[in-house]
Amino acid sequence: MADVIDAVAGRSVAPGTEVLLSMRDLHAGFDTDDGRVQAIDGVSFDVARGEVFAIVGESGSGKSVTAMSILGLQPTLDVTEGEILWKGRDLLTLPEDERRRVRGNEIAMIFQDPLTALNPVHTVGRQIGEMARIHEGIGKKQALERSIELLDLVGIPESRKRAQMYPHEYSGGMRQRAMIAMAIACNPDLLIADEPTTALDVTVQAQVLEVLVDIKDEIDSAIILITHDLGVVAGLAHRIMVMYGGRGVELGTTRELFYEPRHPYTLGLLASLPRLDDVGDEPLLPIAGSPPSLIRKPSGCVFHPRCRFARVPGMCDGEVPALRLVAGDAHMSACHYAEELAGVTIESLRASVDVTADAELLDVGLAVPRRNGGDEVDAEASDVFVEEGVAHPGVTERSLEDEGPQTWPEAR
Amino acid sequence: MTSYIIRRLLQIIPTVFVALSFLFFIFFALPGDPASLIAGGAERTIDPGVMERINARYGLGNSIWAQFGDYWQRTIRWDLGESFLNRRSVNEILGERAVASIRLAIWAVIIEVIVGLCVGLLSAIRRYSWSDKLTTIVTAVASAIPVFVLGFILQWAFAVKPNQWDWPEWARLRTSGIGPNSWTLFFIPTGEQWRYLILPAITLASVTTALLARMTRGSMLEVLRADYMRTARAKGLRERDVVVRHGLRNAMLPVVTLIGLDFGTAIGSAVLTETTFSWPGLGSQIVASVNDRDLPVLLGLTLAVVLAYAFVNLIVDISYAWFDPRIRLGKGEHA
Amino acid sequence: MTLADRARAPGHIEAPESTDVADLGVARPLRADVWRRFKRNRLAMVGLGFIVLLTVVAIFAPWIAPYSITERASGEFRDGPSADHWFGTDAIGRDVFSRVVFGARVSLRIGFLATLIALVVGVTLGATAGFFGGGTDSLIMRLTDVFLAIPYIILAVSIATVVGRSENSIILILGLTGWLFVTRIVRASFLGLRRLEYVEAATALGFSRPRIMFRHVLPNALQPIIVYGTIAIGAVILSEAALSFVGVGPQEPTPAWGRMVADAGGGSLASAPHMLFFPAMAIVLTVLAFILVGDGLRDSLDPKLK
Predict the structure, then answer these.
(1) Which is nearest to C99 in space by CA: C273, C261, C267?
(2) What CA–CA distance (Å, rounded) separates A252 from A263?
(3) CB within 8 A of B155, min separation 6: which ones?
(4) Do B246 and A117 touch (CB under 8 A)?
(5) Which of C2, C3, C14 has its CB closest to that of A289?
(6) What is the C-alpha separation between B57 and B63, in angstroms, rounded?
(7) pLDDT tens, residue order, chain C (306 aa)
(8) Of C18, C9, C17, C2, nearest to A307 (Cα)?
(9) How far apart are the C-alpha atoms of B269 and B289, rounded to whole Å?
(10) Nearest-CA distance from B237 to chain A in Å?
């Protein structure tokens, strides 16, 4: 069948699953007055039907650009190499009107800030219905009925009244739900959610994510979830790709990444999270330094200036590490010494840090939030499972046994 | 919404009061005696008896405060008095001049809207193309030419030169005066009227057209960058539909405001155009009254202009509030 | 040494960036950036070049102009351009070229000074209104409304009847009518900026309000002020021309360009176009130059336009 793609060696999903989207070695950037910003520097991943695939990274890592390049929403993005295969066809070489047919219909996108992403002078109902009108050619009345149905589906009360209202009359969480309703209007096979909860309050975040997952099951679509928040990802995603400096540095299942990280950056990210079981005086380990300029990237491994394990001079600053299989079926990492990281745990990292030595690091005024005990922490957003003295945020007991994601913990 | 309107209406009153009073006091500080003016000009020596009678008649001998109170008492009843210069009722003068100004203003705005909007939108959509750059230069130049210079050039090009080169009669335009003053539906010129109308209308429109074009372009550019445009594209809309269905309405909001304001200004501030083409409008009459120290005409016509401008502003604000649902429906956040 | 051992000893880690509160404000392009972007805008550079040229001409006017502004050449009235009189002569025989050259002084002086007055008054009032809000704001806005209600020319002409028609009076009039727009712009800027978080941060750190207003908020409000100020100089020059046209401009023998155009009148186009053409061109080119520079500044100061 045309849908089941036999990917070349280096495929990142377990054999046998149906791959819908396949990004292969994409290189793309922007030409600016200051030089070329190479935002996507060799990114490859696959997304299978029905799975939740998370792309995680800091600001400036290239994750948003990568997501938007799938739909071709940036006219100034210059793609120099690579393919984006959707159900076998390369989106990059499709003629424009074919590409338009894919947008919204087969692949839909949910943007970060629903207030600016929705047109302020059109009613919500009209904007949702527009999706159906574009792709299915139905009339105004039918479109309105459809939008009311969709609003119901995402859990917005009084949907008939709401459909006639404007975006600014909705609360933040409701707006994002409306965006979700709009995105699923034509039953797309893939939803791309670009930081869908970043602009929302923590309690509302959980609700919206729950809606997202329910919907996904309802219409059997896959989700690409872009975020910088590891907590969000932990309970939701099947597989994760960590991006840094425009490249994918680690790719694997949620369990693999959280329990057996194989890249110093991933390790650093995990180690910098505060734990529910912190007593209050444990040092937090920020990753020192700042994200690389995408115009003048460091030589060799893009992370090496901030890596506590880097061997310099040597391969780390000499050669760009390829994203390769380092463990299991499809756990990949872009580190020359990935195998050696097998023994390193977050606990050992923390234990090794001398409080006084790192006091200077912490003292420079960087705002690192600390939490005391369990009282102030929003338990729903980061349920903690403690396994043998090592705490894993957001991972519940159940998820350690299955491979799939769990329903987000009840959070009202 | 209604409370907003009422509040704005009430605000107009003190604004108009202070503005007119300000003018009133300025002219009182003037050298130059209105009485001598009325009597026939500052040059001739006046019979003191005549002066006395004039002073008594117009209350010019009283204290400034008495005159001030007097003035407002009359004005509230819309008794604008008579011209010092020719004894005509100010209301009559106001009527004639206002009508002429409004007609000219209407046409100037029509030209401005058609040309300005088209140019602005096109150059926004074709950003950075050579036509856009050309537009930028042309609008900049148009903003830099003094209105009366443009007026002179148009007069020369369409009236003087054709005379010299002996153009046929039907091709010649008029450069002075209002002509037969024949109109239908209040503002549609009939017969030969258009020949007298067209040049002053174009001249008056020139400055604001350039500004409108630039503003439209700016507004449209900003809208094109907006997030909701990206969302519309992500839905699979054709670019043309994205711009027209989603962009246009948002871009037009500030532009419509500007058009309204331009109309308000055109009524009372078209001094240069009116003077150049001898079009008998409000602005030129007011300035002439300043030179003549003809206080009643000056204050009366200015009052009308100030009121008209205030009302036009109010209508513009209300329309804006109505078109933009964010303002019309208030910031109701329903959880 | 295994990687695990390495974990214990931090490697070469780079130091973090500056964390001074004053630097955490809204991203502003640096001065070097601004100049670089400006340079790339050819139209703006042409405008700037013209302004520089004009300033030089104004400064060195007595050496550049072959005649004085009152010198009359007998018998040569309304003569077109010639070797002796590059721009021809006017109705009473004066050399138009010299008068245009000296006119540059007048126009630039009026332009800069009036704009300066307007900016100083406008920025002070606008900043106060925008920053303190509430009652102060309402009062200042009502004041602006009153003056804006009166048509500009009428207001200018009225004030002129009181303060007279000398060059300085014109500067005063134009400055006092110009602050209205500046106030609005500045106030809008301040209202917007005031709510930004870094102002809250500064307040929390205990900075006094005037300090916050001037050191932290004003620099960010500068962009529209600079742009408006530049374009305003051109607008003032146009206004001076307009005032001259209605008879309220600088009086004889001051060679104000607007006066020269007004004196020439439309009729001259048929018989002696040079009388109108040269001073009019001077006005148009100068105002155009300021508009182009203002536009260029706006584009290069805008942090979002990359």
Answers:
(1) C261
(2) 11
(3) B175, B199, B276, B277, C266, C269
(4) no
(5) C14
(6) 14
(7) 344 343 333 333 333 333 333 333 344 556 677 777 778 778 888 999 999 999 998 888 888 877 777 777 777 777 777 777 778 877 777 888 888 888 898 889 999 999 999 999 888 888 788 777 777 888 888 888 888 888 888 888 888 877 777 888 888 888 888 888 788 877 777 777 666 666 677 677 766 666 666 666 666 677 778 888 898 898 899 888 888 888 887 777 788 888 888 888 777 777 778 888 888 999 999 999 998 898 888 887 766 543
(8) C9
(9) 14
(10) 7
The contacts of residue C159 (CB under 8 Å, 6+ apart) are: B26, C173, C176, C177
pTM of the shown model? 0.75
Contact at CB, B246 and A119, closer than 8 angstroms: yes
How far is residue A58 CA from its own chain's centroid?
A: 11
Distance CA A188, CA C77 (A): 83
Q: How far apart are CA B106 and CA B266, in angstroms?
A: 9
Rg (CA), chain C: 26
- Round to whole Å and give the CA distance between C127 and C137: 9
Extract the tokens encoding C245: 């046209």
User: Is B19 within 8 Å of C284 when comparing Cβ atoms?
Assistant: no
Of residues A72, A66, A9, A74, the one with CA closest to residue A39? A66
Which pair of tokens denotes residue C124?
């002070």
Peptide bond into A313 cis (omega under 30): yes
What is the C-alpha separation between A142 and B87, in angstroms, rounded? 71
* Closest-CA distance of chain A to residue B328, Å: 11
Between B and C, how many residue pairs show a Cβ–Cβ distance under 8 A? Answer: 124
Q: Which domains does chain C have, with CATH numbers?
A: 33-305 (1.10.3720.10)
Contact status, residue B237 vs residue A127, Cβ threshold 8 Å: no
ipTM of the complex: 0.80
Comparing CA positions, the residue from C79, C104, C103 lying closest to residue C91 is C79
Residues of A within 8 A of B230 (CB-CB) are 73, 111, 117
